[in-house]
Design a protein that fits this description.
The chain is an alpha+beta fold. Helix content is about 20%, strand content about 35%. The protein has a 6-stranded antiparallel beta barrel. A 6-stranded antiparallel barrel has the order 7-8-9-12-11-10. Strands 14, 15, 16, 17, 18 and 19 form a 6-stranded antiparallel beta sheet that branches. The longest helix has 23 residues. The N and C termini lie far apart (about 80 Å).
Length: about 500
Amino acid sequence: MSEPTARKAIRARRALAFALAAATAFSPMALAPAQARPAPDSFADLAEGLLDSVVNISTSQNAPAQKEVTPPKAPEGSPFEEFFDEFFNKRNGQGGPQQRQRKQSSLGSGFVVDANGIVVTNNHVIDGADEIVVNFPDGTKLTAELVGKDAKTDIAVLRVKPTKPLKAVKFGDAQKLRVGDWVLAIGNPFGLGGSVSAGIVSARDRNINSGPYDNFIQTDAAINRGNSGGPLFNMNGEVVGINTAIISPSGGSIGIGFSVPANTAQPVVDQILKFGETRRGWIGVRIQQVTDDIAESLGVSGAEKGALIAGVNDDGPAEKGGIEVGDVVLKFDGKSVRDMRDLPRIVADTPIDREVEVVLLRKGKQETRKVTVGRLEEAEPKNAALKAPTAAEEPKTGAALGLRFSSVTDELKTKFQLKPDAKGVVVTGVDDGSNAQEKNIQPGDMLIEVAQETVQTPSDVAARIEALKKDGKKTALLLLSNRQGDVRFVAVSID
């Protein structure tokens, strides 16, 4: 081989080697991240050990008896006169069996946390019930007493008296969950009985505006109506969440479900068992969000912006501890306050009378104050319920978004079997072919919020929709509750 030919061959081999190296370096395999652990071959062993601890909750509630039927009058002296009087008197409870109140029922899920008979479920599953029955997988049915409940976290604790020890499960640490971790949901969807569904943690710390302490686990494990109150398990068989709500246009699972984290639920359960009520921490401040503009003016930097103190209660724990209006709370009792939502939850979970350190930003400088946590008094006046329309009042009505709706009346409560303390606006009709009908909104649903703002009258609904139109919005996000108390978000076209 001549020298020029040899040099060409060497250059060709070098070019080929370079090309192979480059192809390897930039191949998908070279750029791929570390391989994830494989999915379990089966969840059967895990589910088998947990199913006996998950129960079905059925409730019943006395509903007002239906109005008497006005009997037709047979012609006087007619041979049918006696028959008419006898038939309709019996129907109206006169001269016949006493008319009974009708029973309303609902279904949900729960789980055993103490072998001696302690069961945890959602507050909205048992709210307003006259009777609560816990149904076990072996067919046993036990009447339960309500130990206590907490509407703000939607948790209720029940007690039953079993003839033998029950199989209990334990709470786990939801803080250890990572997005992408496997989870298992067990419950009573659509009243079918114990059902298992698997999925992953889709997100953490979700705020769906259902209460002041929202920090839900979002999962794509199938959660449907009737799953409310059921447990969300990690792969160690520990309860890391209580399944509570879904977002769904149809009422069925579309892979967006929400669970109350165990770290939020367990302290509430412990307090209810110990005191029969919740006892939350309180420091006596009013707070607001630290927006980008406020952060710049206050010298707050980074993703964790804290909570801005907008007011301080006279002689409250915060004032006694030296906290002032304009301070930005960055840490409370060693826990970071990323934004305004974090502070109420952290304070509420802090034991009463504990002295804690509060790290705050004041005039561009970090300072530390010590505050002794007080107790948040949450008892409501006995007569603080909203005034219900009386028989003499005409119900207020309205129409929008393909819906017809009305203020709550006793007549509508009876017609749609609503709970006695139902609040919001009642959907009384849905237009054929409307987007609302496509989203499975039905007469008897309660409209609670429009665009994350509470509505209590039809005029509230109209005002919110007009505001959305002025803002150029194309859809309205509605929060609805069905007759069983299950809540869901539905986006309805404004046009």
